[in-house]
Amino acid sequence: MENLKLLTGFFQAIENDFRIGTTHIAIFAALLEFRAGKDFINPIQAYSIEIQHIAKIVSPKTYHKCIKELDSYGYILYVPTKNKNKRSSIYFHVE
Predict the structure, then answer these.
(1) Across residues 58-85, what is the average pLDDT?
(2) How buried is residue 74: exposed, middle or buried, by Cβ count under 10 Å (0-12/13-18/19+)?
(3) DSSP code string of the chain
(4) Alpha-carbon distances, residue 61 vs 1, 14, 58, 89 (angstroms)
(5) Measuring CA to CA, which residue among 40, 93, 94, 39 is closest to residue 70?
(6) What is the pTM of this model?
């Protein structure tokens, strides 16, 4: 139920945000799907390839650009790691 609330809030927030495109939406939805598989924890710990697979995004460059934009626009908090053997943290703004 919380994921549905987050998704609904996201769609309401982006309604007039011209910066958000379909790739951003795909990533946000994939993050929620990934989170659902992890018992709705916050933050989630994920490798980019795991989210790319769910979102059907092939290019790592596109993924990183869009997830960083989602962070800078305030839709998520993205804490990347430079260590390829460690997952990045993605926080959702929950009430």
Answers:
(1) 95
(2) exposed
(3) -HHHHHHHHHHHHHTT-TT--HHHHHHHHHHHHHHHTTTT-SSEEE-HHHHHHHHT---HHHHHHHHHHHHHTTSEEEE--S-TTS-EEEEE---
(4) 32, 23, 9, 18
(5) 93
(6) 0.93
pLDDT (tens digit per residue) in 13-29: 999 999 999 999 999 99
Instruction: Render the burial of 51-67: b for 16+ CB within 10 Å, e for the rest.
Output: bbebbebeeeeebeebb
Structure token digits, residue 14: 């982006």
The full set of domains in the chain, from first to last, is: 2-13+20-92 (1.10.10)
